[in-house]
């Protein structure tokens, strides 16, 4: 997979479209890939291999070189491969000669200076072109609807294939197996080009020139300067105007103003703590603070040796417990699991949690609310 990145990359587009000057600000900060990002890279490599193998491309098996390879990753990649092949077969029902491209470089520099990205899977056919993007993360569910990264991929694909096939619309799919998320949306070619000319181009120009206004929001999550960004600090520090020492005096309107900002505030606090610790470990001295050793739990140096030693002394070193549902299904297989245990498995009601009205989940109904509804005339 390509290791080079564009200044205005597709993966960071949500950030620089909403906060244009962040692009140049982040440019000066060296990349330090997280274990999550490296795991994602391994997963994409495995997905590419499985799909190319299924298509008869004879790729080299990368498994022995994957640091984070495990059974879950293998199953995710297998599911991704199956999904892409299903889509391809559906397309063949209406188009006899579709083209499929894997890890395809997509250049959208016609609209964004120096802009390019890599599409996990592009299937080109008359009528509808398909863009399929694999996400291995399980922290945040990704939606394809109005997704700028997917739109940029679509523009890059149009730039290559629009003259070869008669493309009217683009189907954009996020395949995120660890969250059981397959998010599909369709945008017409005209609608996409309108977005490109009227929203993308002016924002990208500002971002490339390092101009525009700093704006904080959910897109700050993957910003390389999120810990020390002054705009983000100012936005979160505004909460200090509320007197949390006297909660009974806070009015409902104030609570409603605070609620939408608490998650961002908590994330900012954790980012500041992580940044301060990293700087301290590098030798920086923070007034009033020092680095100390945290709590650690005891662990065996050699589990096999422990088991052998305890067994030889006449004891059973192992505990026996029922396999969890996921492990049980892996052992039995999905069909056998359903045959044997479907009547013995339930999904309890989830714990109530506050969410904004824009959340797609239905509103939680308590037993008390149901009782009140049933007793009203």
Write the layout of secondary structure elements.
Layout: H1 13-18, H2 22-27, H3 35-54, H4 71-92, E1 99-107, E2 116-124, E3 127-134, H5 148-161, E4 167-176, E5 181-188, H6 189-209, H7 230-237, H8 252-281, H9 303-312, H10 325-332, H11 334-341, H12 367-375
Parallel strand pairs: 3-4
Antiparallel strand pairs: 1-2, 2-3, 4-5
Helix pairs in contact: 3-4, 7-8, 10-11
Overview of the structural elements:
By secondary structure, the protein is of the alpha+beta class. The chain folds into three domains: 13-209; 229-281, no CATH class; 303-344, no CATH class. Helix content is 43%, strand content 12%. It is built from twelve helices and five strands. It has helices spanning 13-18, 22-27, 35-54, 71-92, 148-161, 189-209, 230-237, 252-281, 303-312, 325-332, 334-341, 367-375; strands at 99-107, 116-124, 127-134, 167-176, 181-188. Strands 1-2-3-4-5 form a five-stranded mixed sheet. Strand 2 and strand 3 form a beta hairpin. It is globular and about 75 Å long. 23% of the residues are buried.
């Amino acid at each position: 997979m390509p290791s080079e990145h564009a200044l205005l990359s597709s993966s960071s587009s949500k950030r620089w479209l909403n906060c244009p000057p962040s692009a140049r600000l982040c440019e000066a900060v060296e990349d330090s890939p997280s274990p999550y990002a490296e795991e994602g890279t391994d997963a994409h490599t495995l997905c590419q291999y499985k799909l190319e193998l299924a298509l008869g491309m004879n790729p080299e098996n990368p498994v022995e070189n994957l640091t984070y390879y495990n059974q879950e990753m293998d199953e995710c990649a297998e599911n991704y491969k199956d999904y892409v092949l299903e889509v391809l077969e559906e397309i063949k029902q209406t188009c006899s000669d579709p083209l499929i491209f894997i890890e395809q470089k997509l250049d959208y520099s016609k609209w964004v200076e120096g802009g390019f990205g890599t599409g996990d899977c592009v299937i080109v056919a008359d009528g509808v072109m398909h863009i399929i993007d694999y996400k291995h993360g399980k922290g945040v569910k990704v939606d394809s609807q109005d997704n700028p990264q997917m739109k940029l991929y679509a523009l890059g694909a149009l730039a290559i294939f629009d003259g070869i096939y008669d493309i009217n619309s683009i189907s954009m799919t996020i395949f995120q197996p660890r969250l059981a998320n397959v998010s599909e949306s369709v945008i017409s070619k005209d609608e996409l080009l309108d977005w490109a000319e009227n929203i993308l181009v002016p924002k990208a120009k500002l971002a490339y020139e390092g101009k525009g206004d700093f704006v904080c929001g959910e897109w700050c999550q993957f910003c390389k300067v999120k810990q020390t960004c002054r705009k983000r600090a100012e936005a979160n520090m505004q909460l200090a105007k509320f007197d949390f020492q006297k909660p009974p005096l806070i009015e409902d309107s104030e609570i409603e103003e605070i609620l939408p900002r608490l998650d961002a505030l908590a994330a900012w606090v954790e980012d500041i703590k992580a940044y301060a610790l990293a700087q301290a470990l590098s030798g920086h001295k923070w007034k009033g603070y020092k680095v100390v050793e945290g709590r650690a739990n005891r662990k065996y140096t050699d589990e096999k040796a422990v088991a052998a030693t305890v067994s030889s002394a006449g004891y059973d070193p192992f505990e026996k417990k029922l396999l969890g549902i996921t492990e049980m299904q892996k052992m039995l297989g999905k069909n056998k699991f359903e045959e044997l245990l479907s009547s013995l498995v339930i999904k309890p009601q989830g714990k109530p949690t506050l969410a904004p009205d824009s959340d797609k989940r239905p509103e939680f109904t308590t037993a008390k609310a149901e009782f009140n509804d049933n007793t009203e005339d």
